[in-house]
Amino acid sequence: MTMIEFREVSKRFGKVEALKNASFEIPENTVTAFLGPNGAGKTTSMKLIMGFLKPSKGAVLVWGEEPWRNESIRSRIGYLPEKPVYPMDLTVEDFLSHLAGLRRLGRADVERVSRLVGLEKLMDRKIRSLSRGYLQRVGIAQSLLGEPELLILDEPTANLDPAARREILDVLKVLHKELKVSMIISSHIIPELQELSNYAIFIDKGTVLDYGYLNDLWRKYSVETVFTIEATDIETVAKQLIEKPFVHAIKRVSSGTLEVSIDPSHFKVFEALLTEINHKIRRYEFKTANLGDLYEKIVKSKP
Ligand SMILES: Nc1ncnc2c1ncn2[C@@H]1O[C@H](COP(=O)(O)OP(=O)(O)OP(=O)(O)O)[C@@H](O)[C@H]1O
Ligand SMILES: [Mg+2]
């Protein structure tokens, strides 16, 4: 089912047209990477979804309703703004309890969200004293209050050092795994969302370049896809794989690990094959580091 639909949406701020006739859909149960350079229109789109802004033209539909007309939509979405403002003198506990109170949520919800983002040991700390990474966890925690069906995270890793970025990405991974909540995550650092997302929207200067499931986009733009396979008997596994016409290359990266490049249009056949020889395989993982390649191809394919 469609969760979000933009129908020929334009949004104007005076002379600036932040979105130009933007149309896209986001289905339920997706983690969407919302990708584009500075000024592309990512934050504007997110604010339209939240109903903080009204389109100048066209319609934004969230679960079939227009959010600017129907504020109740907002209560089903958790939102981490691009530049959150926190009451620095409050403790983490007081801040989250205050927000929970405003929404008539109990203590249990505060405990739930702090556990989910790994803040439970820092509840007595003043917000002022937190590192940027932990401050961002507070932001994610508040977005989870009230058990939202969708999380909208506007550049959750911006202004973080590489270690903190990694931690936040891991927090988001765990959240997705535990809560099965849909997410829309914006970033202009393209590769970092790859491991998390299964859907993407590419936007530049207010124009939607393309969107869809990554599995379809790899294929559409012929982006080479690479899997890492860990196996007990890699020789036999390698022999079985290399016979297949859709396997382009196999590289042995360690005594128990292979990297296999495949034709992206044979994704499903490849996965079926792995299931078939499953007893020899310890683990396999979709590896491609090329959401960036995809972005390049999408940008270049447009006039
Ligand atoms: N309230 C506003 N008033 C005037 N112009 C605005 C306003 N909000 C956004 N814009 C303009 O709209 C365009 C799109 O901005 P937006 O913040 O949506 O981009 P973004 O993709 O989120 O960029 P970034 O990666 O820098 O966060 C920019 O040119 C921006 O300057
Ligand atoms: Mg932005």
Q: So what's the oligomer here?
A: single chain
Q: Tell me the overall shape.
A: globular
The overall strand count is: 13
In percent, how much strand structure appears in the residues? 25-35%
Low-confidence stretches: none
Largest sheet: 6 strands, mixed
- Domain unit count: 2
Mean pLDDT: 90
Tally the helices: what do you get?
Answer: 9
Rounded to the nearest angstrom, the radius of gyration is 21 Å
CATH topology of the largest domain: Rossmann fold
Second rung of CATH, namely the architecture of the largest domain? 3-Layer(aba) Sandwich
What order do the helices and strands follow? EEEHEEHHHEHEEEHEHEEHEH
Structure keywords:
single chain; 9 helices; 303 residues; Alpha-Beta Plaits; Rossmann fold; globular; binds adenosine-5'-triphosphate
Descriptive report:
Helix 4 (132-144) runs parallel beside helix 5. This protein is an alpha/beta fold. It has nine helices and 13 strands. The longest helix has 18 residues, at 162-179. It has two domains: 2-214, 3-Layer(aba) Sandwich (Rossmann fold); 224-287, Alpha-Beta Plaits, CATH 3.30.70. 33% of the residues lie in helices and 30% in strands. The strands form three sheets. A six-stranded mixed beta sheet has the order 5-6-7-3-8-9, sandwiched between helices. A four-stranded antiparallel beta sheet has the order 11-12-10-13, with helices on one face. Strands 2-1-4 form a three-stranded antiparallel beta sheet, covered by helices on one side. Adenosine-5'-triphosphate (ATP) binds next to strand 2 and helix 1.
